[in-house]
Amino acid sequence: MTEAKERAELLRRVNGDSSHVLRIFDEEAQAMQSVRSSAHELENANAIGEAILSTIHGQRERLKSAHRKALDVLNTVGISNSVLRLIERRNRVDQWIKYAGMLLTVIFVFAFVLWRS
Length: 117
What we know:
By secondary structure, the protein is mainly alpha-helical.
C-alpha cells in the first residue's frame, strides 16, 4: 500500500513538472516570436521613414529651384525690392513655422511613447 502511494506520488510529480516545463518553453517561444515581429515592424517603419525623407529631400530641391526661377522672373519683370523683401520675410516666417511644427511633432511623439510605456 505504501509502495502504491509512493508510486502515485512520483507519477504526479513527473506529470506536473513536465507540463510546467512545457508551459515555460511555450511562453519563451511566444516571447521570441513577439520580439521577432517587433523587430520586423521596426525595420518596416525605418524603411518607410527613409523613403519619406528621400521624397521630401527631392521635393525640397525642386522647390528651391522653383523659388530661384520665380525670383529671377520677378527681377526680370521689374518687381520692386520692397516686394522681394516681403516675399523673403514671408519665407523666413514660413521656415520658423515649419521648424516649430517639427519640434512640436517630435515632442508629441516622445510624450506618446512615454505615455504608452
